[in-house]
Amino acid sequence: MKKAFGNTTWRLILLTLGLQCAMFNAPSSMSYAQCGIENTAFKGGEFVSYDLYFNWKFVWLKVGTASMSTVMSNYQGVPAFRSSLITRGNEKLDNMFVMRDTLLCYTNEDLSPLYYRKGAREGKRYYVDELWYNYPKGNCHVKMHEITNSGDHLWKEAEYKDCIYDMMSIYLRARNFDSSSLKEGDKIPLPIASGLKITNSWLKYNGTTTLKMKNNNSKYRCLVFSFIEREDGKNHELIRFYITDDKNHLPVRLDMFLSFGSAKAYLTGYKGLRNPMESKED
Known about the structure:
Helices cover 8% and strands 53% of the residues. It contains three helices and 16 strands.
């Protein structure tokens, strides 16, 4: 497991803000057909926010916020979704670890990834990850760039037969999956580019539940997933998350299992949703 508080927590936040199964959808016939999908889950103008909590000496403390927005824009002259995610620790977290992360991605209208950038300040470390995508001969070509804390520029290019995503584009795509074909215990591979490598990770479907929120007592019908990563020859459940059982597939609670404790994220607000929040029961 990763030891740095900021890096582990950031990755969990990103993965849990909507990671479901991108593999269930039929390919789109649009320009990036091999990685495209019909989008029915969101529209431009959506904004979602969360409060972050950490278990410190048996007490749950609010340690920060996360917010994500998606708007219609263009990328190199092509109509595209522009999505950004900002995570910010508060003073309580700053006493343990400074976390100031900003992430950005562009995707084609069929949600094929085009560009991704992460700028992260975690403790005394600041680094940048960038990805550029193109699709020659039906493959997925990824150009990767990392600026290290010491200012070094690292580059890598690779081409894959399967689609590769980053933690932002997979969020947008995955919200459009069809859960009706899932059975409890199903496992779904999830290839994600992180830095200069592709992670060996997958999702496990854990069934459905009705969840009562701690921060506002609202109730939601939810699908439950676990995100699992294999590292050092062992499988680790990093996250258990609860998403609305409706067309929005919006995460409402996230349970994050860290090497030194546990954290949770609770939905605090949303606006500009494409579909009615039919999973909310009160």
